[in-house]
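Hey,
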Amino acid sequence: TSSAKGISIFDVDVLNGRLVFRNEIQVSNAMYQTVSADGRFLYSITDNSVAAFAVMGDGDLKRLNTASIRGIRGCHLQASPDGKFLFVSGNYDGKITVLRTAPDGSVGQITDSVFHKSPGSVAERVFRPQVRCCRLTPDGKYLCAADAGLDQIVLYRLDSRTGKLERAYTYRCQPKTGPCYMLFSKDGRFLYVIKEQNNTITVFSYDGSGPSPVLEKVQ
């Protein structure tokens, strides 16, 4: 609502199917949120930064810190399962930002920033990079990025020690389809991609067993 200050917290009354307001945490332009794999920390997009919170025993939030991504505000977040890194997707500047996270859940320094580059204009269309979503492959080897502006799904090899990214594979989707959001199956064999411009979901098989990752369209 127009009076909201950031993140609203509600208790869930399961028996009666109701949400009961608990608290409101002030966060400037809060957008996408994600929770660490162990459920102890919550991270939120805010302006051109990421805010970190500890999840308290009663479900409330305690602010830990805020760290800049040194760019335009992000649109999507993912925390690595090992709790070492945060991956921020940049719709407005086409950038992927990797941030280190500390054992206490706070956000640390940027370990890498990767900009997708536009090939220019083709047949009256201007290609502008728009990284909408990043997901780690379930085997932890690669970071998978959906670029709705370039109609690409790009896989980066992740150095789990340094947090650096190295481009390893690019899947070029059909033009004007706009891949924007992704989920892997629990067994890690399939990738499901929403394409916003033609209103479809595409299923890919994923194979990371070789020297380079491979995506193949299934359906």
